Amino acid sequence: MFPRPARFLVLLFPLLLALLFSGCASTVSPRVSRFHQLPPAANQTITVEPRDPALANSLEFSNYADMIGQKLTETGYLPPATSKSDLRAWVHYSVRHLSKIEEEVKPVSGHVTVGGGNRGTYTDVGINVNLGDRKRTETDSVFSLRLEIERTSDGLRLYEGTSSLRAKNKTLNQVMPWLVDALFTDFPGQSGSSGKVRVEK
């Protein structure tokens, strides 16, 4: 039978290992920059369109446009009732792969020694987790989203915003919700500002 401190550590150690391997933060912090002369939303209609015409029929773009359109609606804009809208929101996104790294993962082990056993002896508690030697590939990439809002009648640029995030082993589809959330945090924000914005995963 383990002494009480040893029993506590036996229960605690697997939890610490689980936290070590989960290692996933619940938030991310994209960098956001904004420049605008955007008046407060007053029920103007707005369409979301790709800056690249080749994406006009893209299902992937349509998914991202829905995300952005929902955010614009929440800030006071309306979807167009006809083919012509008061404003146009141009969307551009990109992925830049920085590096691809392969590394060897070594086994992980842990050990706890607890003093204070009977007659001067020590209780030794050992826990070993052997994951085996294996190779892990990591792709480091920068994901970017750019939003431009223009007045339809004369093409006047009213808003420019960029949201970017460096992440490992992610796809654009995984990262896009974070980029959109960061860009629309305190939208339209202070013109000329640039900094990291923390959002929930």
Salient structural properties:
201 residues; alpha+beta; Double Stranded RNA Binding Domain; two-stranded antiparallel sheet; 3 helices; DUF4136 domain-containing protein; DUF4136
- Portion in beta strands: 35-45%
- What's the helix-strand series? HEEEHEEEEEHEE
Number of helices: 3
Beta strands, count? 10
Radius of gyration equals 26 Å
CATH top-level class: Alpha Beta
Distance between the termini: 43 Å
Quick overview:
This protein has 201 residues and is of the alpha+beta class. The chain contains three helices and ten strands.
What is the element layout, followed by pairings?
Layout: H1 4-22, E1 27-28, E2 31-36, E3 46-50, H2 59-74, E4 87-105, E5 108-114, E6 123-129, E7 134-151, E8 157-168, H3 172-183, E9 194-196, E10 199-200
Parallel strand pairs: 3-4
Antiparallel strand pairs: 1-10, 2-8, 2-9, 4-7, 5-6, 7-8
Helix pairs in contact: 2-3
Can you describe this structure?
- There is one protein chain.
- This protein is of the alpha+beta class.
- The protein has a single domain, classed as Double Stranded RNA Binding Domain, CATH 3.30.160.
- Helices cover 23% and strands 40% of the residues.
- The chain has three helices and ten strands, in the order H-E-E-E-H-E-E-E-E-E-H-E-E.
- The strands form three sheets. The chain has a six-stranded mixed sheet.
- Strand 7 and strand 8 form a beta hairpin.
- Residues 16-23 have low confidence and may be disordered.
- Residues 51-189 form the DUF4136 domain.
- Pfam families: DUF4136.
